[in-house]
């Protein structure tokens, strides 16, 4: 009670003596975007760059008396922070003298999203700025399902979970048309939020009982989140004699145009690499192997590329890095030099994510160090040829790591998946995407009159439509 009374007195004195002046506090006019598990900087600056060492600096989200971070009387007060932020916030103490009030927030969670206030005051002045933080999470693979009706129509549904913010759904037909723009389109969306802030979203459309190919595309709304999850479904309704219901057979291709059967090209591998018979695993050996020194082979950089390159479309692959402490992944253009101890940078035709001793970097011209909460062991690589960008993801926790944009290569020049390894403790493995078959029973159909769903996942190019990657 004594402390509360003292605090009330201090607050009342502040109201009496502190007034807004010409100095201003500036936050950010644009939202700050981050991804689940990353560290983020919330910018805040006093306009005249005066010292804030002797001020009170208070960051809060919704309630002034529940600070996200509190600096007062020349020290931080972690015991007065909101419990969910303890141990995750930091001011830049050396920057306070320059009026820099920016806050570092570590290991961001979905519930961290919202409007933050950056407040500062001394005896004669106070002000605050606003910053919006949007924490993104890349949702799960979407699931397409059918709700049969008695008339000549059915309802097709698409479900995806673990998103934030709410993603955008697009339904297309076999001709690639957005059917949501058609005059006779009927559809709706539903969403549920769990206690951690993740969204489960369902979208439904009405379809006729006729052959068609439907695509459910789910896209994140955060600008830097360029992942697109797609399902293609081919529905054939066949009348079965002596049976009083229609048996639909589903051919669902989940991300089929992106998930490819990538294998290593031994003719490009550094002579110290040992590649498995199926060309899916690679390990660094101790001995220099006697191999032909062809123009495609890396002779100094410990690299190898895939056997096939891409000249169009959108493609996705995953690599398990095992326990290796030094590795790199990315893409390289066909015309890039492969001989010598070359720099793997975009200007030389390399777009690479690098890991060494728990440090993750994008190999830009000046090297970009990336602050990741968890060093990825399974890395997803998503290439969009037409958009000229390649993105990297921690596939285990579905978080974005980095995106190269504006890639410079000639039209129809091949881009090859690139693999680099300097550690010898375990294999680098290209994860195989298998063909799986599921038998599901529709609970809406009575016993003895069961509706069977056969779902096949195809991942090889030869099974896909022409419009798909490569």
UniProtKB/TrEMBL annotation:
A biological process from GO: regulation of cytokine production
Cellular component, GO annotation: external side of plasma membrane
InterPro entries per UniProt: B30.2/SPRY (IPR001870), B30.2/SPRY_sf (IPR043136), BTN3A2-like_Ig-C (IPR053896), Butyrophylin_SPRY (IPR003879), ConA-like_dom_sf (IPR013320), Ig-like_dom (IPR007110), Ig-like_dom_sf (IPR036179), Ig-like_fold (IPR013783)
Keyword Transmembrane helix belongs to the record: yes
Membrane-topology descriptor: Single-pass type I membrane protein
CDD domains assigned: SPRY_PRY_C-I_1 (cd13733)
Subcellular localization, as worded in the UniProt entry: Membrane
GO molecular function: signaling receptor binding
Keywords from the named record: Disulfide bond, Glycoprotein, Immunoglobulin domain, Membrane, Signal, Transmembrane, Transmembrane helix
Sequence ranges assigned to domain Ig-like in this UniProt record: 37-132, 142-234
Signal sequence region: 1-18
Superkingdom, taxonomy of origin: Eukaryota
Domain B30.2/SPRY residue range list: 242-438
Family: Belongs to the immunoglobulin superfamily. BTN/MOG family.
Protein name (Swiss-Prot/TrEMBL): Butyrophilin subfamily 1 member A1-like
């Amino acid at each position: 009670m004594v402390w509360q009374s003292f605090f009330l007195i201090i607050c009342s004195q502040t109201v009496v003596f502190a007034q807004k002046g010409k100095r201003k506090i500036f936050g950010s006019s644009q939202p700050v975007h981050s991804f689940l598990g990353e560290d983020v900087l919330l910018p805040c600056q006093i306009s005249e760059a005066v010292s804030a060492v002797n001020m009170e600096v208070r960051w809060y989200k919704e309630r002034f008396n529940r600070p996200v971070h509190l600096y007062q009387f020349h020290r931080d007060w972690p015991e007065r922070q909101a419990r969910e932020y303890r141990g995750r916030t930091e001011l830049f103490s050396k920057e306070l003298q320059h009026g820099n009030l920016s806050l570092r927030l570590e290991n961001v969670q979905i519930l961290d999203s919202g409007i933050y206030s950056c407040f500062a005051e001394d005896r004669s002045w106070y002000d605050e700025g606003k910053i919006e933080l949007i924490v993104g999470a890349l949702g799960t693979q979407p699931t397409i399902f059918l709700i049969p009706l008695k008339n000549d129509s059915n309802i097709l549904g698409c479900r995806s979970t673990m998103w934030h913010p709410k993603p955008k759904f697009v339904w297309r037909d076999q001709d690639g048309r957005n059917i949501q723009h058609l005059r006779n389109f009927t559809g709706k969306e539903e969403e549920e939020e769990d206690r951690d802030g993740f969204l489960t979203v369902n979208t439904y459309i009405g379809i006729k009982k006729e052959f068609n190919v439907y695509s459910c595309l789910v896209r994140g709304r955060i600008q830097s989140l360029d992942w697109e999850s797609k399902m293609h479904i081919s529905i054939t309704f066949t009348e079965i004699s002596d049976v009083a219901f229609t048996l639909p057979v589903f051919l669902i291709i989940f991300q089929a145009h992106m998930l490819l059967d990538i294998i290593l090209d031994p003719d490009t591998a550094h002579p110290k690499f040992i590649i498995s018979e199926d060309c899916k695993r690679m390990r660094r050996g101790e001995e220099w192997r006697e191999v032909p020194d062809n123009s495609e082979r890396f002779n100094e950089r410990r690299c190898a590329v895939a056997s096939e390159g891409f000249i169009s479309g959108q493609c996705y692959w995953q690599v398990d890095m095992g326990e290796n402490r030094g590795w790199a992944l990315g893409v390289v253009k066909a015309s890039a030099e492969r001989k010598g101890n070359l720099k793997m940078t975009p200007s030389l035709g390399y777009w690479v994510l690098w890991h060494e001793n728990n440090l993750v970097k994008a190999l830009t011209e000046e090297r970009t160090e990336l602050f990741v909460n968890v060093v990825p062991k399974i890395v997803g690589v998503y290439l969009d040829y037409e958009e000229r960008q390649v993105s990297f993801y921690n596939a285990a926790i579905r978080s974005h790591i980095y995106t190269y944009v504006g890639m410079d290569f000639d039209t129809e020049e091949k881009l090859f998946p690139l693999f680099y390894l300097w550690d010898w403790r375990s294999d680098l493995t290209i994860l195989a995407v298998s063909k799986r078959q599921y038998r599901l029973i529709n609970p809406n159909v009575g016993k003895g009159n069961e509706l069977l769903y056969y779902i096949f996942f195809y991942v090889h190019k030869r099974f896909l439509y022409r419009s798909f990657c490569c």
